[in-house]
Design goal:
Shape: rod-shaped
Structural class: mainly alpha
Order of helices and strands: HHHHHH
Number of helices: 6
Radius of gyration: 44 Å
Helix content: over 70%
Number of domains: 1
Number of strands: 0
Distance between the termini: 60 Å
């Protein structure tokens, strides 16, 4: 009877020791926990870097969208100017033809004291601006010339606006490329920081 009791007591003793060991871990377990805490601390730094990269990416995305909107506005402005220039060019061509017809009629009727003015003018613009033509044409003809000059001046203004719009568009497109590069850099930083995160500490 003594032997079975001794064995039973030994089993109880081993069980008790095991339970106590599980409730009160040895210093080795404490070191492991400290290592885990240290790993989480480092990971939290990576998490902060990751979130910072996310914010930078979001800011760049907003700025890029604003630049794209600006490009869209400039492109529409450019299209409107080109449309206006085409309309004015058609108007100028029509007025030019009308004034040329009047000049030929005046020439055939002997309206010019110096018929050679038609041949000596280096351009139709120079011819229509000549003093003799302006003094000879009828009121309707003068109105045509005035309209021609006004349309031509407006066409010149549109040309300046178009050149300005194109210059702005070039600058804004370069700005868009710079912002896109910043956005891509932020995305790479975000990916790099995320890859270093401890899955248990995310």
């Amino acid at each position: 009877m003594a032997a079975p009791k001794a064995i039973s007591r030994l089993v109880l003793l081993v069980t008790a020791v095991t339970l106590i060991a599980s409730l009160f871990p040895l210093p080795t377990a404490a070191v492991t926990k400290a290592e885990v805490d240290e790993a989480c601390r480092d990971s939290r730094e990576q998490l902060a870097e990751y979130r910072e990269a996310q914010d930078a990416f979001a800011d760049a995305a907003v700025e890029y969208e604003a630049v794209l909107n600006q490009i869209d506005q400039l492109e529409h402005k450019q299209e409107r100017i080109i449309g206006s220039m085409e309309n004015r060019s058609e108007e100028i061509a029509s007025l030019r033809e009308k004034v040329e017809e009047q000049a030929v009629q005046l020439y055939m009727m002997g309206g010019f004291s110096n018929p050679g003015i038609i041949l000596s003018a280096t351009s139709i613009d120079e011819f229509m601006a000549s003093t003799e033509l302006l003094a000879t044409v009828t009121l309707g003809g003068k109105e045509s010339i005035d309209s021609f000059v006004a349309a031509r001046n407006e066409l010149g203004r549109f040309q300046e606006e178009l050149e300005d719009a194109r210059s702005q568009l070039t600058l804004v497109r370069a700005q868009a490329a710079d912002v896109l590069a910043l956005q891509e850099q932020a995305m790479e930083r975000e990916r790099a920081a995320y890859s270093k995160l401890n899955s248990k500490c995310r």
